[in-house]
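job 3f2a | input accepted
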Amino acid sequence: MSEAYHIPALFQETIAGLCVQPAGVYVDATFGGGGHSRGILEQLGPQGHLYGFDQDLDARSNSIDDDRFTFVRSNFRYLSNFMRYYGVEQLDGLLADLGVSFHHFDAAGRGFSFRFQGPIDMRMNQRAEHSAADILNQYSEQQLADVFYLYGELRQSRQMARAIVRRRSEAPLQTTGQLVETLQPFCGRDKEKKDLTRAFQALRIEVNHELDALKEMLQQAATLIRPGGRIAILTYHSLEDRLVKNFLRSGNFEGRVQKDFYGNPIGPWITDKDITPGAAETERNPRSRSARLRTATRR
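job 3f2a | predicted structure (299 res):
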């Protein structure tokens, strides 16, 4: 794996959280640079197998030449379909690192970061029909405000949406620089980077339908992972972390915990304590600071 592509956060903790069985069948739902996949393969025996999912064509160049590995170019929301295709009835574990790869943030042509001038694209899957520019230029003012509020948790969502609609009436928004210019007046002076990060995050989530895909994958994983099997999910912002936490604790995304006759919580998963990076890791890899690892065992 190229160091430049991605440096996984909480790497050792995530691999350990899977409790890899040598003859097990595993899924790395977010292959990316292949770092986690290589960690899993190191613990698999000759009878084990790993499937690595990634919808981004760029990730294929990181594919691993190993008979125990299969690269699947697809969104992880199609997990069940591909497992059926490969004749896999049960998994021993699944890992998903929901963070955006360094490769994406640092590639100006992909439009994921406000730090670089480039087209407003943000598609994880280059074959997807709509880019972030399409959303900015086609959504109504109310739709844009909802995107910024729901996925970016921005209080100034309405003002941002109004400014975008006003600017595009003169000419379509096409570059990250134009978008930053439009949004900057509504960013707090002392938190401009944070607000811009949230605005870009909101558009990325909408373009890639990230939260819907996450829900679908988790529901399928609950069916595919055998009793005693493990799941390990790395989250990076409160929206996705809330979904993962609720699902692992209660089996649903609303967090409605069922209890037994004695009032003890019951659910399909036995959850572990969540883990966040320590000071040494965040100093070595500042981008890991928002990571949170949640692991659980299937009942």
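job 3f2a | Strands lie at 25-28, 49-53, 69-72, 91-97, 225-235, 258-259, 265-266, 269-271, 292-298.
job 3f2a | closed
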